[in-house]
Amino acid sequence: MLLANTEELPGYRITACLGLVQGSTIRAKHFGRDLMAGLKNIVGGELRGYTELLQESRQEAVERMTEQASRLGANAIVNVRFGTASITQGAAEILAYGTAVRVEPQ
Questions:
Q1: What per-residue confidence (pLDDT) applies to 80?
Q2: Any idea what DSSP says for residue 32?
Q3: 84 is a domain residue
Q4: Per mean pLDDT, which range of 4-13, 42-51, 53-62, 74-83 is the poorest?
Q5: At what angle do helices 31-43 and 48-72 cross, to 10 degrees?
Q6: What is the pLDDT of residue 43?
Q7: From CA 44, how far away is CA 42, in angstroms rounded?
Q8: What CATH number does the domain containing 17 carry?
Q9: Mean pLDDT for all residues in the chain
């Protein structure tokens, strides 16, 4: 599955537009990660636990989006975007969305 955050894929021609596809996940903070993040706030530095959590969340959202596109018969997704929303204190949604298309080489 080809993914792009642009409207077109260089070297390919869009032959069918299959519609909006999306994937999301809602993740809560882990107590251990939260504790370590609190300590890092005192001394500074990267919050690796949160970095890993967000990376895993984005990957899961993209996988769900590509699965939906595959079910529609797409072989590419263009205009891929990410969004986040706070659901409750300590939990957030990561959303990946784009337009499922069929493409062929030019």
A1: 98
A2: H
A3: yes
A4: 42-51
A5: 130
A6: 59
A7: 6
A8: 3.30.110.70
A9: 87
Domain-located, residue 6: yes
Tokens at residue 35, please?
């504790």
Is there a domain that residue 70 lies in? yes
Kindly give, in sequence order, each residue whose CB lies less than 8 Å from that of residue 65, ignoring residues fewer than 6 positions away. Answer: 21, 22, 23, 77, 80, 96, 97, 98
Site of tokens 């409207």: 7
Task: Map tokens 């337009």 to a residue.
Answer: 99
Q: Which domain holds residue 68?
A: 2-28+59-105
> What's the rounded Cα separation, in Å, for the pair 23 and 94?
8
**What's the total number of domains in the chain?**
1
Residue 30 pLDDT: 60
For 53, list phi and psi in degrees, rounded to 5: -60, -45
Per-residue pLDDT band at 81 (split at 50, 70, 90): very high
24 lies in some domain: yes
Place of tokens 């251990």: 32
